[in-house]
Every structure is written in C-alpha cells, then in structure tokens.
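Homework help board

Subject: predicted structure for assignment chain

Our instructor gave us this sequence and asked us to write out the predicted structure in token form, then describe one feature. I got the tokens but I'm not sure how to describe them. Can anyone check?
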Amino acid sequence: MDALFDEYGRHWFEPDDPTIALLASLHNEGEIDLLALVSPAALEPHKGHRFFQGQHLYQALITKLDASAEALMWAVETLRVAAGQDAAAGFPIEEFAKWCGGDPKRPAELLALIDAEVPHADRYLIIAIKNGVAVDPTYFTDRAYQFLETGTEMQRLGAINALGQIDLPTEADWDRLITAFNAALAPDPGDDVRSALLQAVARRVPGASPDRIASLEAVAVRAITPLGEQLLFEAARTLAFSFGDLPSTLVDVLFGALMAVDAGHQGTIDLLDLALVKLVEIGASEKARSFVEIVLGRQEGALKFKQFDSLIHKIFELGGVVLEDWVIAWLRLGIFRLCDQMDKAMFGAGTDEILFAIDFTRFGLREAEYAFLARKTIATFFLKPMVMTSILTSLVRFAPPAAAEEIEALLIEPVLMNYSGVASDFLKPVADDPADAAAPAAGRALHGLETYIEGLRTIGIVKELQPSERERQLEWERHSDAMNEAMRAARKKSIFAQIATESMMLYGNRAVSWIDHPDEPPRRVETELASIGSSFEMPRVDTVDPLGLQLMLLHFRAEGPPA
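My token output:
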C-alpha cells in the first residue's frame, strides 16, 4: 500500500501508462492481488493528498482488472467511504460502471449480489440496470420496476435513477414509466425518493414529446410537496443544471418551492444562486429580483443578499440597464432592509469608482419620486460618495424644475458639505460641459460649496484649552491599543491571511523562499515587496455634528414611498 499510494501514486499516471498496464497484468496473472489490499485499516495511514494519489491510481486500474464483481465492488465501496464528502469520491464508481459494461456477464453478476443482499451492493443497482439493459432490455427493465415497487429505499432510489436514463423506445414504455412514477408517490415515499423522482423527470424532459412533458411536469409538481431539505436541494440543482430543458411553468413551481429554503443550507443556496444567474441571462432579471426580494424580506430565516455572489457578479458583468434597473427598483421600494443589503453586498470595497449615468425616462417616475429617490440614494450610499453623486446628478438631468431644485439642495447639503472631493472628481467636469443638462445645477452646487467653506474660514483660529500632557499620553495609549486590537481582528478575516504566511521583516525590500522538488535541488525564488493600500474620504459633518448627521440619515432611511 505504501508503494501504491506513495511511490506510484505520486507520479499521477494516466490510464494508458505502461506502469498501469504492468500492475493490471500482474494482478490478472495472479502475481499480486490489488483488490485484497484495499481495506479500511490499510487506508487509515494514508490521509489527504496521499489518499487521493492512491485513489487516482486505482481509478486508472479498475477497468483493466479481471476480478469478481463482489471483490471489485468492495474495493470501490471502501475507496468511496475513505474519500468522505470530497467531490472525487465518485470517480472510482464511474470506472466501476465502465468495468461493468465491459463484459455482458457482469451486470447479471452484480445484480445477483443485490438479490443475495450482499452489504452495500444495492448502492450499485443503477450500474447493474443501466448496463444490463444493453444486454437484455426486457429482463433488466422489468427488474428495475420490480425494485421500484417492492424494494428497499436504497433499491428504489437506484431504480428511479436508472429508469430516468435508460432508453424508452415505444409509447408503451413511456406510459409504463409515468404510471410507475405516479404510483411511487402514493403514499408519500419520503423526501429522498421524491427528490430522485424530480431528478429523473428533469433527465427525461429533453427527449419527451409535448404531451409527455406535460405528464412528467405533473409528476414533478406532485413530488415537490411536502417540502424537505433534500428536495429543496434537488429543486435548486435541477434549476441550476437543467434550466434550459424545463418548461417555464415547472421553473416557476420550483422557484416558488425554493422560497422556503433555509438560510443555513448554503449548498442549496449556492445552487439557487446559479439558477438565478440563468434567469438573468435569459433576460428575466425582474423575476430574479422579485424572488430575492421575497427571501430577503421573510420574517423568519431571511437570507442575506451576499449569499448570492454569482448573481451579483452577473449583474455587474452585464452592467448597463440590468444593474441600473436593480438599483433603482430597490431605491423606489424604499425598504431599508433591501437597500442596506444592496449596499453591503453589491457595493463593497472598490466599488465607489462605479459611476452611473441613468436615463430616468425609462422608469416613468412621478414628480414626487425624484426627490424621494435622491433621499433614498443618500441614505443607502452615503459612504460611497461617487456612486451617490452620480445617481443624484442623473436625477437632476431628468427631474422637473421643482424636484431638480430640491435635489440640487441635497447635492450641497449633505453631499458636498461632507465630501468636497466629489467636487473636483465628478461635479467640476459636469459643470464645465455645456451640453450636459445637469451643468447649471452642478455649477450652482459647486458655488454653494465655496460659500460654505468661506463661511467656515471667517471664524478664524479658535483658541482652545488643551488637556494635560498626562491625559494626552493616556488617550494616545488608549487609541494605540484600540488600533492594534482592530488590526488583529481584521487579520483574522483577511483574505491574505488565508493564502499567505505572515512574516516579520526587520529590514530589506524583498523576500527569498526555497522551493523543494523531489527530483532536483531546492530552487531559490525572490519576491520583490510592495505596498498595498486604499483610502477613502470621511464625511466632514461626522466630526462636528455626528448626531445630527445620523438623525438625518435615519429619517431618510425610514421614509416611505410617496403616495
């Protein structure tokens, strides 16, 4: 085992490698027994990467071995269990399925193990049925239906999976399948069986006629209720990977069921995330947005928008009207939870450079909604001054005069009073462009900022009493301790801490590492060091009147849409 999992496994052989052929030949001639070596006790010392090296070796060997179905099945099952929840656990099973199809006698041999109730043999029923149908279609199809009707739960699952994939050459075969699937649902067979039926239906739909699709859809709709954890996972997986093959009515039913997904079932949410991406890709962004609004707004077990990271990435990838529609739709609703989730999930670090130039004629806004949207924009994106200012400027371009005047006032206070940087970075070019409809308002806002700053300067230098030197020293030490604690807490969540090792350098501007190689001397690698940093502008009023600023933002956040 040490040789197979270490010496041989380290080379990562391909199936046609001469070493693989030699090992298989030695086994087939009786010189060694590769399958007898595989046992839980023998695999115990081989963990992690060492185990998967050996598993890959056996994966390349399986189809080349002459062995009984029982001996090979035991070896494959032992490898599967040892692999745990790793995605690679199923690779030896795929090779076992190829081995079973390599000889017409092997499906019957494997089926005999299942009939004899050999432990774990029923886990491989689907392999026996699928390969057996190619040898004797009538017998193995009949056996599949027999297992579906009277078998154990594991056998029923295998039979459903097999019946979802074997050929159905005649209308009678289709009728028999749909009848059997409906019969399997009465009485309720449990979450696992209903999940398997949903998966089988999804596989059958692409090759079915319109009438058969309707019958299959009816089976799927019956299978969905009652909802269970495994069924929701299968519903999400079906939408993620079979979206284009499903009828739209079934898609709507599956999305309706997934509104009950638990916030803690991240695997199901990840698949649901991919399914929502499919909706956006076909132009149904509004349907995806409506779904997200419901699951974010639930009273209990509400999801977080950041859990749909693929959807967020797709929205930004498409950009344009897709991104604009998403942002404006949630601002118009005025629901703080949605706006807050959008700000945190979509507009994180580095996104303040996104500038909007929105054509608000597309949204058919009423006059009162322009100023309302401006206040909601400030409440939502107050710490993203460029995003906030670009949306306000877009509103000014299309707002009626009275609403434009109100938005212009908001541009001065609180935007420019807190963020003078946006004046030079964004508003100045707008004001200097005579073709821009927002130029007059931008110019007046800039003038308002100048007036405000001049007013501040008229105060002059204000003399103040200073704390004693001891009090200042104590405050500095407190501040230093707080900063160090914040730094330690930030390191725990840092992505760099997950991919790199931290080292303290006393001098120098480069790091030297030595990379070990099994067949050659260590290689010296030099890495030049550089600084990584970011900056942001703090709102000015937060220093002089933080309570007043927070009260204003709270008022804007709590405001409901105009009647």
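Reply (TA_rk): Your tokens look well-formed. For the description, you could write something like this. The longest strand covers residues 520-528. That's the kind of observation they're looking for.
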